[in-house]
Amino acid sequence: MIGGGSVGKRHARNLAAEGCDIALVEPREDRRAELAGGMRLVGNHATLEAGIAARRYDGAVIASPPSFHLVQGQACLAARLPLFLEKPVCPRLADAQALKIAAATSGTPLLLGYTWRWWPPFQSVRRHLAAQTIGTLRHVKFTLAAHLADWHPYERYQDFFMASTALGGGALLDESHWIDLLLWFFGPPRDVMARVEKISDLDIDTDDNVDLLIGYDSGLRISMHLDLYGRPHEKFVQFSGEKGTMRWSEVPNEVAIWTTDSNAWSREAFECQRNDMFVGAIREFLSLLSGRSGPLTCTLDDGIAVLRVAEAARLSHAQGRRVALQDVS
Q1: Alpha helices in the chain (DSSP H)
Q2: 170 neighbors 208 (Cβ within 8 angstroms)
Q3: What whole-number distance in Å separates Cα of residue 90 and Cα of residue 72?
Q4: Buried b / exposed e across 41-69, counting CB within 10 Å, b at 16+?
Q5: Edge-to-edge, what's the strand order for the sheet holding 83-86?
Q6: Arithmetic mean of pLDDT, 136-144
Q7: In the predicted model, what is the mean pLDDT of residues 22-36?
Q8: Local confidence band at 292 (pLDDT 50, 70, 90 cut-offs)
Q9: Confidence of residue 189 (pLDDT cuts 50, 70, 90)
Q10: DSSP letter (8 states) at residue 134
């Protein structure tokens, strides 16, 4: 386990629950002590070099801030360690492409942690989209609003990597889960128009407000709003089609569908908890370590596609124009 912050602790607990032995790599002594106090560790290291040299491992999980993913990923791949890599792949597209070269050179598998792909409501949404339950889509609205100070009440939000551009934080990168869902549902778009900016009073140097307008050759239009200042927290996705509307909401956790045929709402309620998607991802990783073949739920190429949209958004904001995805390489 490389990284002992919030998501690293979550993955470590889930792996331990699946019967795994865990060794930790974490430069902060307080985090090493905290995790060691909560579970048995077979190794507890301040540096990746010490961790890799200490023993043989079946695989590695990288759960550090994104700015470290390239160097740490290259080191693990050079050691032939299969990887579960937290999203985003890297802060920059060029770094992600360099990691892809390292993965191809080593021939080592890599599973990417855009964990909403393992979320049962979105799997249901994807089935409805494939079946064209609400007909030809015309518009989709993604919204995620969540005040950064509420994310980790046990620490100052200014100390969280999300507050630092240098560490790879910010709404565009960290909340790029929603860009990944867009690509998982619909594939690569034609173009992006965006604003990526800091507009709140939060004491951070990262972007806290992202608004995207995304176009497809099919005529589908998508709007996406991501922020780090919204209260109360809100997550929903609404799909508008020729035959009706479909909406996923976090609260209540349901997929609601209205169609012209029924002229009424039907609701599919879900009891799944947030940790379930992380467990699903980790179980797939353990299956991969056991020799499972077949397509992965989320790949390095999927993460590179997300970063291509993110870089198009940054370029659009900087130049005040619509940017075609084919112009981002």
Answers
A1: 6-17, 29-38, 48-54, 69-78, 93-106, 120-130, 171-174, 177-186, 274-289, 300-319
A2: yes
A3: 11
A4: beebbeebeebbeeeebebbbbbbbbbbb
A5: 60-62, 83-86, 110-113
A6: 98
A7: 95
A8: confident
A9: very high
A10: T
Rounded Cα distance between 139 and 131, Å, is 17
Task: Name the percent of the chain in helix, strand, coil, to the closest 5.
Answer: 40, 25, 35
Residue with tokens 């609404």: 238
What is the C-alpha separation between 282 and 278, in angstroms, rounded? 6
Structural tokens at position 201: 């009073």
Q: Map out the domains of the chain as residue ranges.
A: 6-115, 118-272+296-327
Strands 83-86 and 110-113: parallel
The predicted pLDDT at position 240 comes to 98
CATH of domain 6-115: 3.40.50.720
214-272 pLDDT per residue, tens: 999 999 999 999 999 999 999 999 999 999 999 999 999 999 999 999 999 999 999 99
- Position 293 pLDDT exceeds 80: no
Q: In the prediction, which pLDDT does 87 show?
A: 97
Give the whole-angstrom CA distance, residue 209 versus residue 260: 35
Q: Is 151 helix (H, G, I), strand (E, B) or coil?
A: coil
Q: Is the dihedral of CA 246, 196, 150, 119 positive or negative?
A: positive
Question: How large is the C-alpha radius of gyration of the chain?
Answer: 20
Helix (H, G, I), strand (E, B) or coil at 214: strand
For residue 4, the 8-state DSSP code is -
The token pair at 269 is 């309620």
User: In this predicted structure, what is the pLDDT of residue 134?
Assistant: 98
Which pTM does this prediction carry?
Answer: 0.96
CB 216 within 8 A of CB 227: no
Distance CA 269, CA 248 (A): 10
Q: What is the CATH number of domain 118-272+296-327?
A: 3.30.360.10
